[in-house]
Amino acid sequence: MSKLNTQRLEGKAALITGGRQGIGRAIVDRFVAEGASVMTCGRGARPIDLPANIEWQTTDVSNLQNIQALKLSFEEKLGTMSILVNNAGVQIEKTIIETTDDDWNALMGVNAKGVFLACRELIPAMLHGGSIINIGSISANTADPGLALYNASKAFVHGLTRSIAVDHGPAIRCNAISPGWIMTDMADAAFAVANRPENAKADALTRHPAGRFGRPEDIASLATWLASDEASFATGQCYTLDGGMTSASPLNPRLF
Amino acid sequence: MSAVKNNYLENKVAVVTGGCGGIGNAICERFLREGAIVYAADIAETAPRGPLFQKHDVTSEESAIALMNRVHSEQGKLDILVNAAGIEIEHTIEETTLAAWNRIFAINVTGTFLTSKHCLPLMRDAGAGSIINFGSYDGFIADPQLAAYCATKGAVHALTRAMACDHGPENIRVNAICPGYIETPMLQSFFGSSGDIETLKQEVRNVHPTRRFGTPEDAANLVNWLAGDEARYASGQLWVLDGGLSAQVQQMRL
């Protein structure tokens, strides 16, 4: 590994939703390493392993009062926001006919309404110039089986990403990252519903030209670039980062 | 612009075809600042200042072999190939001669094929590699009177995915960047020289969510990221960089 650029986010204040673990936490850690001042949030109490220089605000992103409190807390502690990463997301492993109204409220509340509320409440305070990064998914373009509402919620995120870029440029750039299979608890949960989880995992691995699943740090690399001034012409895009998986046909002859 | 340390590509060897052109030259300069050893491979007669220079006709297999032989003998490996050589012809298909069609495919598509094909052994010697092709947002949606150009860029997009699938297991990543309107001589040629060009250009700028054209440095920023280890999980993708232009539907003027 060659040396990484550092201090690319110096002087910038960033909010990352869903920073307790996984991809969100990797983005938090990387942004701090790049010199940003960072606040993150999640539904529970402050994680005990979160370093002291990172602000935490207990927040349910689907709740307007929580988002407004988050905004006030951010401004009080870190000042003017220039980077917003909408990472908080949940997944429910069900087809549409199995999905209840409560499932709808839980999933769409976080994945769709949460992104909407965060953007609506925070964009007015970012019009001096900012970068919004939404976590979309490759499942927004092609469906993962048994993840009906999740797939649809990520398509919402991609559509909203383009609208924000178009409506609020040039002050605000907005892009989405579509991770492929990133090894997080959420990916393990998806494998767990397969008939033979180990076989499903081996099969999925073979479908990756990169020869491995992604890591949260891979997503943090791209988020860093998009957050930085290096990406000042990048807006309105949904960039896929999946180790090459979706560049191959799903019917992969190497597997037969 | 926040501070960027200049050693992201330290110890890497890079070849940039079209390295004397608008975007290619910006990529060479950026790679040099990041600590890479850079070969500008270009049909131009005169060497640019900065990078090493190899006269290279991307349509010639002999030229591709000679280029890679030189890199092999001087560096023993290649880490990065940027296929930036390309031309544009401003015609509908009816106005396009077979010779012009064959020429643009020879440069934009065959050139990407030949230079990539002969760089693979050198990337195996390096143990890994990153190939960055030049697609275009015109490979997804058409600009008027650029028919053959649009078709070549669609071909580069498909080739990019295919190469990523075939060579990923060897740790060779392949991506394409797909620029929109970038301020280059090629863009100037697209706008032509008759009429009120400045007014036209301002109108086109205003259609962009960023309200500006891209610069060669914007393209180099993305190529630089894709070239290095930060992008180690990025492969098989078409990276549109267009200031938000194609995030919109057609902008009606009513």
Q: How many distinct domains of chain A?
A: 1
Give the SSE order of chain A as H and E letters.
EHEEHEHEHEHHHE
The count of DSSP E runs of length 2 or more, i.e. the number of strands of chain A, is 7
CATH structural fold name of chain A: Rossmann fold
Instruction: Name the biggest interface.
Output: A-B, 51 and 53 residues
Summarize this structure briefly.
The complex is a heterodimer of chains A (256) and B (254). Chain A has 256 residues and is an alpha/beta fold.
What would your notes on this structure say?
The complex is a heterodimer of chains A (256) and B (254). Chain A has 256 residues and is α/β, with parallel strands linked by helices. Chain A has one domain (13-182, 215-244): Rossmann fold (3-Layer(aba) Sandwich). Chain A is 39% helix and 14% strand. Chain A has helices at residues 22-33, 64-78, 101-122, 148-168, 185-192, 197-206, 216-227; strands at 13-17, 37-42, 55-58, 83-86, 130-135, 172-179, 238-241. A seven-stranded parallel sheet of chain A has the order 3-2-1-4-5-6-7, sandwiched between helices. In chain A, strand 4, helix 3 and strand 5 (130-135) form a beta-alpha-beta unit. In chain A, helix 1 (22-33) packs across helix 7 and helix 2 (64-78) runs parallel beside helix 3 (101-122). The radius of gyration of chain A is 18 Å and the shape is globular. The two termini of chain A are 35 Å apart. Chain B has 254 residues and is α/β, with parallel strands linked by helices. Chain B has a single domain (13-245), classed as Rossmann fold, CATH 3.40.50.720. Helix content of chain B is 42%, strand content 15%. Chain B has seven helices and seven strands. Chain B has helices at 22-33, 61-75, 98-126, 147-167, 185-191, 197-207, 216-227, and strands spanning 13-17, 37-42, 52-55, 80-83, 129-134, 172-179, 238-241. Chain B has a seven-stranded parallel sheet with strand order 3-2-1-4-5-6-7, with helices on both faces. The radius of gyration of chain B is 18 Å and the shape is globular. The mean pLDDT of chain B is 93. At the A-B interface, helix 4, helix 7 and strand 7 of A face helix 4, helix 7 and strand 7 of B.
